[in-house]
Amino acid sequence: MSTTEQSQTKDGARTKTVFEAQAPAFTTQEAEAIARQAFDIQASAHPLASERDQNFQLRAKDDSKWVLKIANPAENPALLDMQTKALLHIVAADPSLAIPRVKTTADGALFHEIVAADGQRCIVRVLSFLPGQLLDDVSLHPALVRDVGAMAARLARALRGFLHPAARHELIWDLTQAPALRTRTHHIENPGRRRVVEEVLDHFDAEVLPQLKRQRAQIIHNDVSELNTLVDGDRVTGVIDFGDLIHAPLICDLAVPIAELIREHPDPIATAAEITAGYHAVTALEDDELRLIFDLVATRCAMEVAIANWRVCDHPENTKYILGSIEETSAQLVWMREMGAESMYTAIRRACATPATSSDQSDIVIPP
Fold it and tell me: What is 19-129's CATH number?
């Protein structure tokens, strides 16, 4: 599968992907007009950071807050439909989960279509605004990271019965599609860093992916990250951004928070164990799944390095955002290669209180 989520016009010509097309560029005044005319919200609009779409926080006259989301013109409408219906499904399955609520248009539709100045059509949605601090802005401690794992599990449990025809789409952040990034590693200028990334991707393709395909799978959030998780004290208060929904092995959901939260933590193994234990307390993980976590985290890190170096070539104006944590992620890959899988697996198994199995000596490691 391609990592570019490419599409074609009716005459067979290749169209731009969401990672190649420029994000929408509507003014705050235009955003306010869209909110008023399509969603019956009288509000002031304030831009929010986004890479491929355009988002505004709406502060309504009645003191309510919303997020106006203008999708990239190259975005597949079926994927937006899946994301929106997933939100509705989660609320129905577990109303206590703090996720954005969908606001329909004045005539009851789930989205509204607008035309930009260049003639491109964009889909607009409005979701409720969730308060809270980003996980990225707070100090980590065991109770908090454990709750991150628990929240990921609760989301997956709520999504367990959700089906959608677009769920098996091409997505560069889908771990099962990671080997396709091998064609993008030439963008990594540092030869040593490029070699490490390529070795991790090759190892994943040959040794890990066949095992991963045997694990239980469903639609997962796939991005419970520092920038998508809201917290208050030692509790997770909400999860946002359902743009990376994908049908994939359940255990892949843990690779994102573990990869991010151990990046600069003084005790990365203990942090990985706490996150996994939080997940396991909600949905019990099987030993075969626990054994894959180390390699999934390493592969996620390799994906981040490959994708960032590729993306920055197309969008040099967004260099700071795209390459924000690449140095730390690259260093983490080196550290993981030196550590090997056994230490993390042992700590995770102990934290989850799962018994040892006869296959304990056959751990999978990243090749030196």
Answer: 3.30.200.20
